Amino acid sequence: MGRRFGPYGGAYVPETLVPALAELEAAWRAARADPAFRKEHARLARTLGGRPTPLHLAPRLSARAGGARIWLKREDLLHTGAHKFNNALGQGLLTVRMGKPRLIAETGAGQHGVATAMIGAALGLRTEVYMGEVDMARQRPNVERMQLLGAKVVPVRSGSRTLKDAINAALRDWIANVRTTHYLLGSAVGPHPFPSIVADFQSVIGKEIRRDALRAFGRLPELVVACVGGGSNAIGTFKPLVRSRVELLGVEAGGPRGAPWGAASLSRGRPGILHGAFTYVLQDREGQIAPTESVSAGLDYAGVGPEHAWLRDSGRVRYVAVHDDGALRAFRWLAEDEGILPALEPSHAIYAAVKEASRRSPDQNIVVTLSGRGDKDLEVVLGAARRRP
Ligand SMILES: *Cc1c(COP(=O)(O)O)cnc(C)c1O
């Protein structure tokens, strides 16, 4: 049994994966304690990734809200355009350390697939990415990016042919090829130790927020906001602040107005087992995984990382859902007020942050993690504008 967050987490996996998960945990713990690994990791984060990312004051967005000051943690400036770089680099280096020549990954929107293909190329690892056929059709440019980076994209034709089926296919491949292959899981989900490893590699976000807030305004912010899909950028943002008094707000995708589920596992789900972990899951009365819906492919997942499940139940983090129309409005605010095209995932968090800012006084500071850039979403944004001018 794996490590737990309250009752959540664990490792509900077939017997064959147990040694691989143990090997991964041992490699990760040894790497964390190894100064040479940490030095190489820090070097590549800087020279390949572009870390550290800045904390940027958004003055005109703050003025629009008419209350607290809003700051953006600019993970959108990282290599390949999102925080996913942090996890891909960390697990890529662990793969090399374990002496495995092959990487596999799942991807929904393609962002994690692109980050994995990139690190596979940079570290000389053979890379295959599982992707649902439906997602391959709607995210064509990312399929092409992965292929240009030398990865093989494997179409998944089972189930709903989307992200959850791609995860199942990647898990099956891992079971069959576990000696030569590392499964580079893309979010803070899945069986132990993945949620802890991914949170560890993403925690650089919260550590930099802490340091740069002290430099920029001499204290920690009053509120920190991040969007939650599987929960990796949010747990990386929150974890270094959980023991402080900073208020923490996670923002899930509410989906279209009136949709029964959206992709809001913590707001509308209930505890169950998905992809090897006990966590909040969107499911019907019989326990069948519910069909999720969101304007942002990166938040469109029926589960959530088990550590968030515990942070929710314990009350340390508040979670809310923002609908598609809120995210689309926030996309435009950030574009027109600040000259930044955000990804639709963090646009959910921007919307919630502006609402919060409007209720607070101007001497308060709110930090929002801008998890990725919006180039990948232009078609969706423009399509929505055509339907509702
Ligand atoms: C994938 C993605 C997300 C959602 O994933 P988390 O694991 O919840 O962070 C959020 N933002 C962007 C830009 C993404 O690409």
Secondary-structure topology with pairs:
Layout: E1 4-5, E2 8-9, H1 18-32, H2 35-49, E3 55-57, H3 59-65, E4 69-74, H4 84-97, E5 102-107, H5 111-123, E6 126-132, H6 133-138, H7 140-148, E7 152-156, H8 163-177, E8 181-183, H9 194-202, H10 204-217, E9 223-227, H11 232-238, E10 247-255, H12 265-268, E11 270-274, E12 277-281, H13 306-313, E13 317-323, H14 324-338, H15 344-358, E14 365-370, H16 378-387
Parallel strand pairs: 4-14, 5-6, 5-8, 6-7, 9-10, 9-14, 10-13
Antiparallel strand pairs: 1-2, 3-4, 11-12
Helix pairs in contact: 2-4, 3-14, 3-15, 4-5, 4-9, 5-7, 9-11, 10-11, 14-15
Descriptive keywords:
389 residues; alpha/beta; 6-stranded mixed sheet; 4-stranded parallel sheet; 14 strands; globular; binds pyridoxal-5'-phosphate
Précis, in short:
By secondary structure, this protein is α/β, with parallel strands linked by helices. Helix content is 45%, strand content 18%.
Structure description:
The protein has 389 residues and is α/β, with parallel strands linked by helices. The chain is 45% helix and 18% strand. It has 16 helices and 14 strands. The chain has helices at residues 18-32, 35-49, 59-65, 84-97, 111-123, 133-138, 140-148, 163-177, 194-202, 204-217, 232-238, 265-268, 306-313, 324-338, 344-358, 378-387, and strands at residues 4-5, 8-9, 55-57, 69-74, 102-107, 126-132, 152-156, 181-183, 223-227, 247-255, 270-274, 277-281, 317-323, 365-370. The strands form 4 sheets. A 6-stranded mixed β-sheet has the order 3-4-14-9-10-13, sandwiched between helices. The radius of gyration is 19 Å and the shape is globular.
